[in-house]
């Protein structure tokens, strides 16, 4: 029996049409000899052959109709996310290519779904087992998802999904409630002084399925901060011990030498020994004063300050070229603290090896702030120094305390601003400080 599925569609159409044309022509010629009128022969031919034509066409195209129904069913399954179906078609030609392409599409979708499921499982495992408490909140302020850390921290180990997030926060410790009331990211402490935990709160908004959701993350920082605190104290002790030894050892040695000079009556060498003792004592005094200033930096007392007068006062203490200073503009900051900060930066610029005339201070007005750039043409900083220069106690100078840039950063951030360092094209360094204004 002829299998229509194995023939090209054009050949099937042609064969059926040719067979019926030949049959119609022969039958019409035979009937014309029997019937009195020609149209009666044509009508009789159509009446006899048309049902047969319909039958054969339906018979020939029945497998294709089944194939099209199967294609429609698999497409509907793909739309519903079920990619397990495939088609079996023995034919060749255009329909065979269509079925093969459809099966390849299904295989690709199955592989993608499998890879997606594996990634979802990996992501869910990571989210569930991370020590960071994560809570996803929908637009109705209902909890969509809470990982294991969130259940332990906020729900006494129970599931959080479906609960009202605001009710959950209302039952939380007061420090957490206050952190949420402040809005944005922040740190807060839970517990008393003897048994306290430090947390970091992070809140992010994004759109999921066209709706605005909020992701809340709570991270316990107590252990990490305590490790950093111990390391910081160790570094402070090393720096202080080094400076004290560098000053006290020569003072003790010179004091002993002075006593010997007095005993021998060699008074002419005493002034040199006493001057050296005084110099080391003053260095030690300045060192301790710098540490005290950094540790006890008071909150800034901001007030309007005229820029032209402020810059002129700076220029009376250290040489630099001023650029962009407005005649009548003013900022709002603690004049004494910003003056100390800029003096440190300008002195660093002079100590960088820059020509004195290349040490400049540039002032620019931003939409809602003032930007102050201290520029030099010294040797600049390598990547390692740039990454650590603003940290307390970090210094590349032989006798540096590592507090100058750290103090500048503390002052800028206490004013609600920021400070950054970057190397300049052509050599040199730019220290950029932005102050709200």
CATH third-level topology of the largest domain:
Heat Shock Protein 90
N→C terminal distance: 92 Å
Please report the total strand number as a whole number: 12
Task: Assess the beta-strand content as a share of residues.
Answer: 15-25%
Rounded mean pLDDT is 79
* Adjacency order of strands in the biggest sheet: 2-1-5-4-3
- SS class: alpha+beta
Give the number of helices: 12
Helix-strand pattern = HHHEEHHHEEEHHEHEEHEEHHEE
Domains counted in the coordinates: how many?
4
Largest sheet: 5 strands, antiparallel
Radius of gyration: 43 Å
* CATH architecture tag of the largest domain: 2-Layer Sandwich
CATH class membership of the largest domain: Alpha Beta
Domain HAMP: 69-114
Membrane topology: Multi-pass membrane protein
Protein name: histidine kinase
GO molecular function: ATP binding
């Amino acid at each position: 029996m002829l299998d229509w599925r194995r023939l090209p569609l054009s050949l099937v159409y042609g064969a059926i049409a040719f067979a019926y044309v030949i049959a119609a022509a022969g039958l019409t010629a035979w009937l014309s000899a029997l019937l009195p009128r020609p149209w009666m022969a044509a009508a009789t031919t159509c009446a006899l052959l048309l049902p047969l034509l319909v039958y054969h066409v339906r018979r020939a195209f029945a497998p294709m109709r089944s194939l099209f129904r199967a294609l429609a069913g698999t497409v509907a399954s793909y739309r519903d996310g079920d990619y397990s179906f495939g088609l079996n078609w023995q034919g060749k030609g255009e329909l065979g290519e269509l079925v093969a392409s459809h099966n390849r599409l299904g295989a690709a979708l199955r592989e993608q779904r499998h890879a997606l499921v594996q990634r979802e499982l990996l992501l869910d495992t990571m989210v569930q087992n991370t020590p960071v408490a994560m809570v996803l909140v929908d637009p109705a302020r209902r909890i969509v998802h809470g990982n294991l850390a969130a259940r332990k921290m906020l729900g006494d180990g129970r599931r959080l999904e479906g609960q009202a997030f605001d009710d959950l926060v209302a039952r939380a410790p007061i420090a957490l409630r206050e952190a949420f009331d402040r809005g944005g990211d922040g740190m807060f402490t839970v517990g008393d002084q003897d048994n306290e935990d430090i947390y970091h709160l992070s809140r992010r908004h994004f759109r999921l399925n066209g709706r605005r959701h909020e992701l809340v993350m709570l991270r316990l920082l107590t252990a990490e901060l305590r490790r950093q605190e111990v390391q910081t104290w160790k570094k402070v002790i090393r720096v202080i011990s080094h400076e004290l030894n560098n000053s006290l050892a020569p003072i003790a040695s010179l004091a002993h030498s002075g006593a010997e000079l007095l005993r021998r009556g060699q008074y002419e060498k005493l002034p040199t020994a006493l001057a050296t003792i005084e110099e080391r004592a003053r260095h030690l005094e300045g060192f301790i004063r710098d540490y005290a200033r950094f540790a006890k930096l008071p909150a800034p007392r901001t007030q309007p300050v005229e820029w032209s007068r402020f810059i002129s006062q700076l220029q009376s203490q250290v040489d630099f070229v001023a650029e962009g200073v407005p005649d009548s503009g003013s900022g709002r900051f603690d004049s004494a603290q910003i003056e100390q900060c800029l003096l440190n930066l300008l002195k660093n610029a002079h100590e960088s090896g820059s020509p004195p005339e290349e040490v400049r201070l540039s002032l620019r007005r931003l939409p809602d702030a003032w930007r102050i750039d201290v520029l030099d043409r010294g040797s600049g900083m390598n990547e390692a120094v740039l990454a650590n220069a603003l940290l307390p106690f970090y210094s590349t100078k032989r006798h540096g305390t590592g507090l100058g840039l750290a103090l500048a950063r503390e002052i800028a951030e206490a004013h609600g601003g920021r400070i950054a360092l970057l190397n300049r094209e052509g050599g040199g360094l730019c220290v950029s400080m932005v102050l709200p204004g």
